[in-house]
Amino acid sequence: MRLFPSSVFQKAFALAAATALLATAATAQQPNLAPTRASHAMVVTIHHDASDAGLAILKQGGNAVDAAVAVGFALAVVYPAAGNLGGGGFLLLRDHNGKAHFLDYREKAPAAATRDMYLDEHGNVVPNLSLVGYKASGVPGTVAGLTYAQKHYGKLTLAQDMAPAIHLASEGYVLSAEEAHLLESKNLTRFPASTKIFQRNGNFYKAGETFKQPELAETLRRIARDPDDFYKGAMAHQIADVEKAGGGLITADDLAHYEVKEREPIRGSYRGYDLITAPPPSSGGIVLVEILNILSGFDLAKLGPDRSAAQVHIITEAFRRAYKDRGDYLGDLDFNTLPLKQMANPKYAAAWRASIDPAKPTPSAALVRPAGFLPPPPAATLVHESTQTTHFSIVDAEGNAVSSTYTLNGGFGSGVTIEGLGFLMNNEMDDFTSKVGVPNTYGLIQSSANAIEPGKRPLSAMTPTILTRNGKLAYVMGTPGGSTIITTVANDILSAIDNGLDIQQVADAPRFHHQYLPDRLDLEKKFPVPPAEELKAMGYTINRLAVADEKNPGVWGDSELIAIDPKTGELLGGHDSRRAFGKASGY
Ligand code: DON
């Protein structure tokens, strides 16, 4: 069931790198949608069947974690571009008593991984080796993450939480035109097991057809019966056999040693709100805090309305500065000492703030980090980030909140389906740094803190975030979008808090992004022309199309958001209408 007819949404629709794209034109006119309102609970995801799966679990007496588990498994069925069993992610839970738990179920480099595994004998990066095929995968964490969440924080059984996903896989779900088109991805055509399942061996699925996945249904049933099967049982050996036959590195031993980590979330505050957000191996939380700390010294609302040139300039300069630090310092906390405290220091933010020229951009090449706050950075390297991930936000009737972002990395991950088990594997190894000093297509800088090492988790930008005010739940936020994730979450916070947009307007606001290098201001196609012209006149290099995705038709991200009305306690869902098949489901 759709919340809105898709005809309303013939407009911007981004699908990701390595993914077949639906080239619907972006129109300047956004439908002016209202938030979805509910008095008890709310589930917002990119897929209506997944949102309804979460809602059904809540109505059965499950809590937000049960609903998140149901949604996570359901998205693996109905949104195979990013929903997954063969990937990884993060889940942030804030329970109704205010206690926060951050589950890191990010992929790990296999034991046989080496620092130079994507270089040829001359030391050059082998194109696509970290992106396509068996060698691109890290040890998947999703099944561990979701089953851990259910076991430790859920109220229902795993079988109950997984029932909707099993049903969707065995009975199928009806494909929209957009979804059918997505499945035509070339990434899937490369691998026979993927072509067979997702492309019916070349007889591509069409809009209105029911897509059933019996192998995946059986895999899900096996996990529901025994979650250890995936990591320590017969299933682990099946996965390892397929990996070995394809030349991959993941062994049964790697799977047996996968572990979910509970980490201390990053915390910050902004204009009376408290933030709970993603710690390393995500760069998201700390960079978000740094951005907001810099901006806390400006009265943004006074500068102009949402997306006015004056606001965008100041916000962009904060992005530029925080992304410089992201590139220079961040990696897996288990393998590095990271200067997180120093990066979150308000005095450091004040020093950065003082370097912002109110009238014009600071060229990235001329940007000098304020002295005396951070240690010298490790050697810099350059890598890119690719694009296909998904976020969901849930609040239950007790006030427990879950914000989770998980991913295969690129659209349909490595393209490899585990034969016999019916699920796709990630290409998360590409989030590591492949080679020192080699600029890639997108030129995003990261440090050697993110070099490949066995057992290490690659640096992520995923930023599931929860905001509270005076101890009360206020917002649940997050988005996909590779390197644009952090700026999108920051912009969503600013649009809500500084500019007073309602949560649906927040999700749909035109996006802008700057990541220090390349030194350009990326604007979505629908970003209004007058402020873009003003920004250009100020000295910005404007790029309307590019983000870390050469096929992007002019939009990025997918904010799936919940706000809580502070006066009435009503839940307000904001589903990103860039995607026609998503939904905010509440009751
Ligand atoms: O972990 C990360 O930051 C990336 N693997 C996420 C990729 C992504 O968000 C793509 N989304 N559209």
Question: What would your notes on this structure say?
Answer:
A hairpin with a 4-residue loop joins strand 13 (417-418) and strand 14. This protein has 587 residues and is of the alpha+beta class. A 7-stranded antiparallel sheet has the order 1-22-21-17-16-9-8. Helix 1 (48-59) packs antiparallel against helix 2, helix 2 (64-78) packs parallel to helix 4 and helix 14 (309-329) packs across helix 19 (529-538). 31% of the residues lie in helices and 16% in strands. It binds 6-diazenyl-5-OXO-L-norleucine. 6-diazenyl-5-OXO-L-norleucine is lined by residues 16, 385, 387-389, 407, 409, 428, 431, 460-462, 480-482, 485.
Described by the principal axes of the CA atoms, the overall outline is globular
Strand order of the largest sheet: 1-22-21-17-16-9-8
Total number of distinct structural domains: 2
Hetero groups: 6-diazenyl-5-OXO-L-norleucine
Arithmetic mean pLDDT: 90
Features:
19 helices, seven-stranded antiparallel sheet, binds 6-diazenyl-5-OXO-L-norleucine, single chain, 31% helix, 587 residues, alpha+beta
